[in-house]
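Final report, closing paragraph on structural work. Over the funding period we assembled a curated collection of sequence-structure pairs, and we close with a single example.
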Amino acid sequence: MDLPSKFQRLAHGLDRLSEISGHAVAWMVVLMTLVVGYDVAMRYLFNVGSVALQELEWHLFALIFLLGAAYTFKQEGHVRVEVLYQRFSPRAQAWADLFGTVFFLLPFCVLIIISSWPFVFNAFQYSEGSPDPGGLPYRFLLKSAIPIGFSLLVLQGLASIIQRILFLLGKEKGQA
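Its predicted structure, as stored:
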C-alpha cells in the first residue's frame, strides 16, 4: 500500500470517528428535547420545577455543542464566507480550507485544549458538583468534555488537511 493510500485510510478512519460522535450527539438532541418538554410541562402544568432537570438540559446542550463540533466540521456546517468561497475553483477551495484549518482551526483548538486542562484538573481534584441544592453531582465529568470535544475537532481537522492535500496532489477525487 502506497503512502497516499495510507493517509487516505487514516482520513477515512478519522471521518468515521466524527460520524460516531455525530450520531451520539443526535441522540443527545432527542434526549434533550424530551427533558426540556418534560420540564416545561411540569413547570407550567403542575407548577413543579427541578434544578436537576434544568442542569441536565444545560449539560446536554454543552455536550451537544462540544462533541458535535467535529461532526459539523466534517459535514462542512461551520461558518465560512460563502459569498466568496462558492466562487472559488475546487482547487482554490481546497487551498482556502487548508489555510483555514492549519492557521486558524488547529491553533485555536490546541489553545483551548491546553488552557482547559487546569480547569478540568481542578474540577476532578475536588470532585466538583453543582453548587445549587438539588443540582447534579459530577460536574467534573462534564468539564472533561471540553478537551475531549476540541481533541475530536483537531482529529477532524487533520482528516480535512489530509483530504485537501491528497486532492491538491490529484490523489483523491471529488469535492475539495
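The chain has one domain: 3-168. The chain has six helices and no strands. We thank the funder for supporting this effort.
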